[in-house]
# Entry
Amino acid sequence: MFFGKKDKDVRLTAKQYKDLVGGMSKKERKEFERRQDELRRDREYYKLDAWLDFEDEMDGM
# Structure
């Protein structure tokens, strides 16, 4: 689970996740999942970007 911060990647158990989304409407759950996917993609992009910057620095040495 991601909560809007690049440095926060919170792992939930199945029960915790069910408790979290159990009270949501279908529309709210869909939006929540969409936002989680968006945050996951952003996080992957930042990791890749940092890795490419690191490789560029190493190539420059």
User: Anything to note?
Assistant: The chain is about 70% helix and 0% strand. The mean pLDDT is 85.
